[in-house]
Amino acid sequence: MYKVPTWRESWQTVAAEEALQRREVAAWDPETELQADSGVVLHRVQEAEEDLLISDFWSSALDAINRRLTKHLEQLKSPMGTLSNVLGNLHLDSSNESNMAPGSIPGENLVTRPCHLKCVCYDIGNFATCIIARNQRSFLLLFLEKCQIPRSHCWVYDPLFSQLEIAVLNTLGVIVLSENDGGKRSICGEPTIFYMLHCGTALYNNLLWSNWSADALSKMVIIGNSFKGLEERLLARVLQKNYPYIAKILKGLEEFFPQTSQFTDIFNDTSIHWFPVQKLDQFLMDIWAFQEEPDYQDCEGLEIIRNEKMTATDQNLL
To answer: Residue 9 domain-assigned?
Structure first.
């Protein structure tokens, strides 16, 4: 026979259920869950690094980077040698990032006092969920290690980063920028490598505008979409109107990247770009006098998320 519960029994049942719910809520800690998820993503990044390390692509890419960066550093009058020896002799030190004054002589900086080789990474993608972005992130980490660039000298930004990805990047030791500068970032006289795979064309154009001088460009290396490929795909009038700095610099750069059967979906159309002083010195002064800030109001198919503001905090970080 069914017994109707008394009011006291009903109250006790409700109280027990409420207590159970409170325990469940207390057990769910967002920070704890974030840490657990971060561990999963870090493990996946490590697995991607291991896969890259044993690939033919990595050995070919490292050799290509070795050759181009060694040439780049030679033109800055750095010591001769292999990539690891050359970069190792730069005495990288994260304790003081103001030793190199803007506009100073490149050779003097690298030979007579510490040089702070930097790396800036744009738009790497959602590596927590996308295997292509994860492989690109793993390549960056291996690149920093092989080139002996401290992770504290690497700044990263993507407007699509999730809180989980920001937490992972903080754990990895790189610096995550909080504001979108649209690629308008000056190197401030310090040798800088920009890692920008599959970025919008405007981002490269903005970067060139922000460093539009022979002195600044000679200190830069860009690992990203092939500029020659852009020239082939875009009509000349479109390139010159919408992306004038890319159009003007084509004769002042050299680019190369190994083509292998591996990771073709990840590093396709990617090149290492550097700017030999000999080529830059051949430009007429009129080219350098052109300093108009890019304006993409009439540009169709713009592949860039713009933000007009950049905080003083982010400016100071660099």
So the answer is: no
